[in-house]
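re: that chain from earlier
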Amino acid sequence: EVHLEREGGAVRCTWSPFARRHSCEGLPEWVHVGAEDLPVGGRSERCTWAHPVTGATLVVRFPSAHLLGALTLELALTDGAADNASLAPVRAQLLLDTAVAIDLHRPGGKRGFARASVETGGARDAPVELRITTPHDGQRHTCFRLTTQAAR
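^ sequence. v structure.
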């Protein structure tokens, strides 16, 4: 489930099987969520494009994710966006069972993925939500990867 929260209400981002992504109604084409091959850390990486919007929160929600014991969030800017160190940072908060479990920031000037993991309390199904924001959306070409694995 994908939507954009902003003053005045939420904007739905519906799944398009043709485009293979969630597109947000009435917003520019770059406001979408979907898996793509993107330049990250000098390589082509498969990750989920999720460009934040100034004054809003992009929400990607998994109502009942099957967790294996640990959850890892990876957050990156594409290399072209990361190389511009003067631009705004991107923040991603991962909520597990409605509580913030991971809070990652990706400033300009840093290539590659920022990573953080959290224990999930064993194998189980639980709601997982990713909330992505930026104070200014100019060239904030963001992508993420969210994986689960057995606890160590």
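The first strand starts at residue 2 and ends at 6.
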